[in-house]
Amino acid sequence: MAESPVPVLLVTGFLGAGKTTVVNHILAHAEGRRIAAVVNDFGAINIDAELISGATDGVVSLANGCICCTLEGDLLRTLASLLRRKPRPEAILIETSGVADPADIVRNLMDPVILREAPLETVLCVVDAAAPPRAMEDPLLRAQLRMADVVALSKTDLTDAAGRARVHAAVAALRPAATVVEAPQGQVPLALVLPEDPSRPPTPRDPGRRRPHADRFETLSWTAEAPLSLPRLQAAIGRLAPRLARAKGVFEAVEQPGHPFLFQLTGGRATLVPMRQGGGPPATGLPRARIVFIAEIGRLSSAEIGAALDGCVAAP
Q1: End residue of a domain, out of 158, 193, 228
Q2: Which residue of 17, 63, 108, 176 is 20 to 30 Å from 77, comparing CA positions?
Q3: Could you tell me if 126 and 271 lie in one domain?
Q4: For residues 21-54, b (16+ Cβ closer than 10 Å) or e, as one string?
Q5: Residues 243-253: pLDDT tens digits?
Q6: CATH code of the domain in which 149 resides
Q7: Taking a C-beta distance cutoff of 8 angstroms, is the pair 227, 252 a contact?
Q8: For the residues of 69-128, what is the DSSP string, one character each?
Q9: How many Cβ atoms sit within 10 Å of the Cβ of residue 218?
Q10: Is there a domain that residue 239 lies in?
Q11: Minimal CA–CA distance to 272: which of 287, 242, 250, 289?
């Protein structure tokens, strides 16, 4: 008996939009379905894969590249491997990096062999509702929106009614066919993005002609094997922030040993939250401090990052 096709949910969105928060909500509310998650981070250190919790059929990490270009072969091999699992997943969720153009990924997923076994069901684009108005003019974000079936407006609690109305209007003007849902804390209903009947035929899609790929962003990583000083780290990030598009990392602070923190910077907003309660040892085989920085090419160097952050490491 032929096995049922496994629907694919593609989650896209610009740097720092809140994709991982949406993914975590979907996986935590999977209603018993086996969902395999494929997480693509642009940096050599896949912080996003560390933050995915509740995946019911495992997390596969694709790091140090973008699945719309350099890692597209890895993505197709990963899908083939997932489809060979026993038991087979009931759905596959792919979280792209924030620098990915989903049209190129959709084009790869339209391969007849993949389409037959793992049809693309939904393209979900996460948009930061609290971002400044000029953010909606970014060509990469607009390319992500043009492919969306569903648009999830994140961080709606950080903006007012006028700001939310402005984002709704901008999305409707660019992608009128999309279903728009406000998603504070990543709250996207599972039924909106994954079908009850996976045997139904996939929606025809036209990703358009392939466009030349031009690198715009680069990723730089920094690690340390000791806890960091919080005041010194805050000062260092403040100096680097004007040249950053995005930063995220995990570290231990000398002020609270054994308690890892998650640091994120997006849209000029920095947040710092505990990773888990109760402390415990650092993740096996990973540096105690690991931070990924994303900037437009030429705006920042590894030497400048090292000069800013090396002084944050606590003395032995």
Answers
A1: 193
A2: 17
A3: no
A4: bbbbbbbeebeeebbbbbbbbbbebbbbbbbbee
A5: 999 999 999 99
A6: 3.40.50.300
A7: yes
A8: TTTHHHHHHHHHHHHT-SSPPSEEEEEPPTT--HHHHHHHHT-HHHHHHS-EEEEEEEEE
A9: 18
A10: yes
A11: 250
Query: Both 185 and 221 in a single domain?
Result: no
Residue 1: both structure tokens together:
């008996």
Q: Is 147 helix (H, G, I), strand (E, B) or coil?
A: coil
Clarify whether residues 131 and 42 are in a common domain: yes
Residue 236 located in a structural domain: yes
Q: Which amino acid is at 25?
A: H
Total number of domains in the chain: 2
Tokens in use for 107? Answer: 């084009």
| Eight-class DSSP state of 54 | -
Domain presence at residue 16: yes
Q: Please, what is the angle between helix 139-146 and helix 161-174, to 10°? A: 70
Whether residues 296 and 237 fall in one domain? yes
Whose CA is closest to 67, among 56, 80, 59, 76?
76
Confidence of residue 79 (pLDDT cuts 50, 70, 90): confident
How many Å apart are CA 31 and CA 29, to the nearest integer? Answer: 5
The neighbour count for residue 300, using CB atoms within 10 Å, is 19
Q: What tens digit of pLDDT does each residue of 270-294 get?
A: 899 887 543 344 455 788 899 999 9
CA distances from 198 to 9, 86, 94, 121, 263 (A): 12, 18, 17, 9, 38
Sequence-ordered list of residues with C-beta below 8 angstroms from that of 178, at least 6 positions apart, any chain = 125, 145, 148, 149, 150, 151, 171
Rounded to whole angstroms, the Cα distance separating 249 from 265 reads 9
Give 160's contacts (C-beta < 8 A, 6+ positions apart).
none
Prior bond of 87 cis (ω within 30°) = yes
Residue 258 domain boundaries: 217-312
For residue 313, the Cα-to-chain-centroid distance in whole angstroms is: 28
In a domain, 203, yes or no: no
Q: What percent of the chain has pLDDT over 70?
A: 81
